[in-house]
């Protein structure tokens, strides 16, 4: 009620005033961010991107208009019915500048004029930089401005960053490779192929004088043996390297007096990921030409080339497998000493596990792509008519290689794949626009052709290691050629009705319709339609309300390179043998995906505050998903869902004199979605993860719910305990978590003082769950700090009931040395454990970025733009999960967000950006 009364009082005060509208500009165009204040009040606003502003005033008020580097100007409000427009503000000039004018070769002598100067020419002294002063034969001086000469300009950008891994898993550092035998914890050497670190305390072991390929520093024996020395321990987190990225770009531009442009851009970037010996590079070049044929017509051409290469693409999940191999290695085994044995086999702590450095040495998972773009546009405008014709051509080629070496552990058969993809696009369009008082009408016609050529060669079955990778006994080829012709025609229109309610309100109406013929869509036609209405300046305030209805029909892209669904073919325990060898092919007669989107937006501005509230509702039919059938995936339109959400944005700008200003934006977003139905009577489709733990579309559930194994429970939800005293695992999949957050917040702050700008950004995620499979597998191997802390727990009684329904009273030890290791608290449930145990809250608070910029702008006194920025990303992170993070994807795909299985770690980066323009 207090809020309603407060709004009433504010509105009453506002309604007694009038809205005054204006525009701020200089001779170069609009001035966004200019400060406009009513004199002797705290009532202020600022100009928008186009220089427009509006502010509540009374008759005879005075407006003070200021802008950094410009003279402050004062105007008096006389007639509230008039709109001030095109208010020009002058640059602040110094005596040094006037002295510069006097010292030109042909000097103006103020006391004894040697000639004459036109008053219009003289006025330029107060506005523009003078490059030269020429004297005509009749004695008249002509001032030559910068724009009267051809101009050559350059821009150089350099960016460099270093990132270090953070929020890494915690590992145990007390127990050696081995297990319990006959009531004792026994160390077992690599020759035994033991995978567990459930052995004795490392302080009871030592190096002997006998060396081996596994232990060049001396085989590990009991410390009681003679001639021994203490063993060294290794932290798996030291395996990772810092990630570095460097990018250098150069722009050279020639502009003539007719404003024709020729621009050359060159850019080179190189870097690496957190895995040792990884590297990547990217080259970008472009040439742009802009020609003003006349005042009504101009053409623009752009030619671009891009190439990218990386030597560890993760196309075959190699990155995750490397992280896995490093993490499960016993604490006393140094993988880096040597990756190979004399026999050529890899040197690993077990022949069923991998040495991460061997995986790196034998890595052949690489990717290289190149793209050529050509763009042409002709722009014609005359009075109320304009017409734009453009043509686009793009040709790209992607070549990827991936495979599993004969000596890799955990694979059934060595294999190697070569994947080549070519993609060509041609697009022609014509857009005609007619502007009239209060609106415009626009028609657009386009023609397009796309072609995708995919070839993939599979090699397997090798008689000898030296034949790997190309000389295989079996070679299969997969080819797919797809093309699509499209023709579209559409009409857009907008109209504004002024003073619709008689009090400066404006009603803006907009509608559009589009019809597309496609050679690959079922029934050949796609339709799109939009209608929106916006009512502005309600109640003579900066309050507006809009409603939009948008219907979209779209067919899937010919290109479906998200291959991470391949892991759905493998159980988690078979992760080391997983391959990325299946493709998604768009059907020839594709059913379009239909989307109906409704928006309601309320926007209000007052005293440099801006509030925007957006409520939306979306309904989507025929969402394409990877559908698994008999070991093969098809790209199929199976899922229907709905989503509703609300978004709130608050912006504020504060000015303290001419040197300091502060602005912030606050964002809130919350949404809820639900799968309404799945075609063909299905109730569930998995789309990311593994066969036994995955994300799903489930009827009646939010998008992407996590499903996996749980503990068996009775009708009263009590845990069912087995005869050994441990809970029973229920392998039937169950919904365990929802990766969608309840809401997210963003808070960005900008501080400006003279030429310095400080940006500070926070974000907060509330709600949602993630699956931390990394922790589960580390528990299984006995490598986690969690098992180090809890393995000695004994006489523990799990709360639940026995299989007969009686309360459980059997006490257990989490790791009983009198029992086989396979029966301890963690190993008994397998590599994946019980997925229910791995579900963690996704809440986090993050100081996501911090940057400080110093910038000198090109002006009348300096021909140089200079800016340098220092930044830190992921400055501080608090999260309920100690190592997993909801925004960190599992297999370099957004579909796998919320799943963590030996993902690359989160990074904290430090860097700088330098820009020079002259």
Explain what you see.
This protein has 918 residues and is mainly beta. Among the domains are: 17-88, Carboxypeptidase-like, regulatory domain (Immunoglobulin-like); 95-149, no CATH class; 384-554, no CATH class; 564-704 and 739-767 and 844-879 and 886-918, no CATH class; 705-731 and 769-825, no CATH class. Helix content is 6%, strand content 50%. It is built from seven helices and 49 strands. The strands form ten sheets. The protein has a 22-stranded antiparallel barrel. Strands 1, 2, 5 and 8 form a four-stranded mixed β-sheet that branches. Mean pLDDT is 88; it is low at 1-16 and 79-115. Pfam families: CarbopepD_reg_2. It comes from Flavobacterium hungaricum. This is TonB-dependent receptor.
Helix/strand structural class: mainly beta
**In percent, how helical is the residue content?**
under 10%
Query: Which value, in Å, is the CA radius of gyration?
Result: 34 Å
In whole angstroms, the N-to-C terminal distance is 59 Å
Described by its quaternary structure, the protein is single chain
- Tally of helical runs: 7
The major beta sheet can be summarized as:
22 strands, antiparallel, barrel
Low-confidence stretches: 1-16, 79-115
Q: What is the count of β-strands? A: 49
How much strand content do the residues show?
Answer: over 45%
General shape: globular
Mean pLDDT: 88
Protein name: TonB-dependent receptor
InterPro entries: CarboxyPept-like_regulatory
Pfam families: CarbopepD_reg_2
